[in-house]
Amino acid sequence: MPNRLAGETSPYLLQHKDNPVDWYPWGEEALARAREEDRPILLSVGYSACHWCHVMERESFEDEQTARMMNEHFVNIKVDREERPDIDSIYMSAVQALTRSGGWPMTVFMTPDGAPFYGGTYFPPVPRGGLPSFQQLLLTLADAYENRREEVLQSAGSVRDYLQASTGAAMPKAEAAGAEVLAGAGAALLDQHDDRFGGFGGAPKFPQPMNLEVLLRHHHRTGDRGALAAVETTLRRMADGGIYDHLGGGFARYSVDAYWLVPHFEKMLYDNALLSRIYLEAHQATGDPFYRRVAEETLDYVLRDMTSPEGGFYSAEDADSEGEEGKFYVWTPREIEEVLGPEDARLAIRYWDVTERGNFEGKNILNVPRPLEAVADEFGLAPGALWDRIVGIRSRLLAARDERVRPGRDEKVLAAWNGLMLRSFALAARVTGRDDYLEAARKNAAFLIGNMKTDGRIHRSYKDGRARFNGYLEDYAMVADGLVALYEATFETRWLVEADVLCGAMNELFWDEERRSFYDTPADHEELVTRPRDVYDNATPSGNSVAVEVLLRLALLLDRNDYRQRAEEVLDEMGGGMEKIPSAFGRLLAALDFSASGTREVAIIGDPDAADTRALLDVVYSRYLPNKVVAGRAEEDAESAGLIPLLAQRPTRDGKATAYVCEGYACQAPTTDPEELRKQLETH
């Protein structure tokens, strides 16, 4: 008989609806029962694409004896961390404080009022690797709560005090000015960069696109070739490695090794949003078509496999299919020969380094260890001819792979992650000139506003026709940020108005006057053990950092000095963090660069769909200009001129689309000539 999770929409929770565990979703029903029966709470947090979450479910939550122990001694609550990042953040901080490590599945034992007294991640069904069995842990903690209550409550009180103190603690002020903080951050990240394999640190190795953005900006600001070389090394190594899907496009979550070969195979929307954007920006900075190709392949994957009919972007694809991690993605030489025949198979096997021995459990993760030119020389082909062959081979292998059992897909639509992808599609539409990307961005924005926004407030999650949960800071900030990018790509003012509405609500609901920064949860949110405030970048940029960036962009577009002042308050509050640990503040450092390094304001007057307007826009988006805002209108569009001061009293010249470039309260001469605009933008 299904448990209480059967009424949920989260695919992760629904995966557990038939467990013999008496699971509750997080809510007053479960918390009230714990209080009334004076039972400890067992909180289990995970997400649908998490491999070890699936393992622990099979080993423990589907086991009748384990479930009886859980049901007898605990009130059991299951949470999808992607729907409830507040709960995940609070209790992950507790687990890290208790154990010095963290991860998912997260397992937390709490008092009935929500104070954690013990926690960890995965626990095996039998003692292993220094861990007790899950059943041993259940019995030990149930006994402790029953017979050593004072000790348990003391531990819980200490953890509660730690959580509340860490949320309220002030960050030290920066000792240096903004330009010096930026220079120090660039130097520090270069020191941390792996010059051989790219990326930062060792195994497991995660993409860190926010830190790559800091280095790309550092190069743009200073001309430091080492910073650009670091970015290029990382982006090329990743795109050649097994972390990249060479047939279908898109990146996996991380690499288990230091050289990007063996991924943890789940694909997350946010990774592909952030990585497609940094590849587009690398293309703008270098002109190298390789980076544009990887970005387009990644976005094409999202359009093909991760987009709902209504225009929302799905959250994730699992690592596992048919109970095996990576099974969908790996190949043997024989499988390739069966699809391609001997001649093309020989080429594919060499290009993607496929061997009889394999590089992953006897099979092969496709990767590109040799330059295209070297393989072409081996086969007596010109590099261009080889690539044309690879493109055809790739499409045939992809079609064959699509006949396999696919990994599970988490089809909930999360506002924040959609905002990240919206910005990438909007940028890509202008960089590549592809109208299908612009249509995807428009459709996504209309979906978010039409289905996930009510009375000026955004919801966190949407699935099966239901928008649920309060939006968090990151939802407001990232959706607003995506809408501003869509305005810049289309000059359709409705998107800018919607972004302004969301930022007004964000300021009202999340601002902390004392700490001069934003909370993660709105003021009228349910009361938890503490009110979380996450200022550090993780796999996604922090809500505070994106809030600062979008406020700065809107301040310029709408001439909102109050938005600029608020953003600068956060930059000042977080200055010491950016100075001391820049790797945790990549997106906020980008916002600091935007604020401190001078910003271009580009106004284009002309019909947005006309060829002369598009020619000017092509110039603007053909180069890497991270510190800019772009506004535009048709000459007769009085509404836009009234809303956006940058567009006021700026006519076309000689009836042609006309560009105005301003910086530091001074404007250059208006021009209708794309080459003249190019020169103006190249002038620092």
TrEMBL record:
Residues in Spermatogenesis-associated protein 20-like TRX domain copies: 3-163
Endpoints of the signal sequence: none
GO annotation, biological process: carbohydrate metabolic process
Name this protein carries in UniProt: DUF255 domain-containing protein
Source organism per UniProt: Rubrobacter tropicus
